[in-house]
Amino acid sequence: MPELRRDPIIGRWVIIATERAKRPDQFSVKNEEEALREGEKCPFCEGNEALTPPEIFAFRKPGSKPNGPGWDVRVIPSNNPLFIVEGDLDRRGKGMYDLMNARGAHEVVIDTPRHFNEKGIPEEQITKAIQAMIGRLQDLERDHRIRYVLAFKNHGKAAGGGRLVHSHSQLMGTPVTPKRVKEELAGTKKYFNYKERCIFCDIIKQECDEGRRVIAQSGNFVAIAPFASRFPFETWILPIRHNCDCYRTRREDVPDLARILYQVFNRLSATLGDFPYNMIVHTAPFRNYRKKGYWETIEEDYHWHMEIMPMLTRVAGFEWGSGFYINPVPPEDACAFLKEVVKGS
Q1: Comparing 293 with 227, which gets the higher pLDDT?
Q2: If you compute the radius of gyration of the chain from its CA atoms, what whole number of angstroms results?
Q3: For 164-209, what is each residue's pLDDT tens digit?
Q4: Residue ranges per domain, the chain?
């Protein structure tokens, strides 16, 4: 019988369609990649730096020069930015409508100089990519026009990935806090006001106590299949120590985060093959602009985390019209499949 599950953070309902339950090999949506045209060079590969805008930041080998070979991780402006650094916001009204200039930032973090994806990237390289992302978030926080930075990765055609399959992430700094983020902030604040505890800390404690949905755990991070998973094999990675800001992660904890990311992607890849996915970092908004009473408890009530969403099913009319999601794989089953990979290896 189908089961309705309510997400405790924002109140979103999910239908766990047990009668449609599938094994990993029963999904018809596999990753589709658009290959580069014959003779076309990948601009993200080492040696092709002239094909991209000048770098903003890079981890480089000693003696190497900017915008040339010799880098480990490279950050560049997007070739087709949605948000532009230069200029003022110019907030204004037009009758009943509000508008402003799309000022902010749109950057690309190239995770590795080599042309391969997550399953082939070693932990040390993932560590450097995370450190580069954190460094950019710390720098963008200084720009008072930017309220929020969304860090995300799209892999595969079904997940909105483009022709550049070379592993990379994007950072988008926006002059407003996105609506999806506000919904989560409102839910965590409501819970804190009632219980005086962080809802994510409570989720971590309950999941670790029960163990049914814990995919992997390290000293400082835990990976879970969320109770109200929207997508088959959806996975969240959370810091066990309370922290609302991703970019305030302690430097000594970054290798541990890289390790659990490496483990999770290895398990997902072993279970699903080369699957399309979106990965999003949920972090608190910048507080360099404060309305009175607006961020009073955010350091206590919010908890940053990563969400990995395999795109194995399609969102259709019912989902768009109702706000419900339909998931044919109960998270407990997904977790069991992913754990079985370790036993069978």
Answers
A1: 227
A2: 20
A3: 788 999 999 999 899 999 999 999 999 999 999 999 999 999 999 9
A4: 3-344
Which residue's entry shows tokens 């998931």?
Answer: 327
Could you tell me if 44 and 168 are in contact, meaning their C-beta atoms sit under 8 angstroms apart? Answer: yes
Query: Which residue shows structure tokens 């399959």?
Result: 165
In angstroms, rounded to a whole number, what is the distance separating the alpha carbons of residues 165 and 158?
13
For the domain spanning 3-344, the CATH number is 3.30.428.10
Taking alpha carbons only, the member of 111, 114, 89, 108 closest to residue 100 is 89
Q: 345 or 136: whose pLDDT is higher?
A: 136
Closest Cα partner for 176 from 206, 154, 145? 145
pTM of the predicted protein model: 0.91
Instruction: Report, as residue numbers or ranges, the catalytic residues.
Output: 168
CA distance 187 to 114: 41
Q: Which residue type, as a one-letter code, is found at position 13?
A: W
CA gap 307, 226 in Å, rounded: 10
Contact 59, 128 (CB under 8 A): yes
What does the pLDDT look like over 97-134, one tens digit per residue? Answer: 888 888 899 999 999 998 865 457 889 999 999 999 99
**Measured between alpha carbons, how far is 198 from 262 in angstroms, rounded to an integer?**
27
How far apart are the C-alpha atoms of 30 and 274, rounded to whole Å?
7
HEC string of the chain equals CCEEEECCCCCCEEEECHHHCCCHHHCCCCCCCCCCCCCCCCCCCCCCHHHCCCCCEEEECCCCCCCCCCEEEEEEECCCCCCECCCCCCCEEECCEEECCCECEEEEEECCCCCCCHHHCCHHHHHHHHHHHHHHHHHHCCCCCCCEEEEEEEECHHHCCCCCCCCEEEEEEECCCCHHHHHHHHHHHHHHHHHCCCHHHHHHHHHHHHCCCEEEECCCEEEECCCCCCCCCCEEEEECCCCCCHHHCCHHHHHHHHHHHHHHHHHHHHHHCCCCEEEEEECCCCCCCCCCCCCCCHHHHCCCEEEEEECCCCCCHHHHHHCCEEECCCHHHHHHHHHHHHHHC
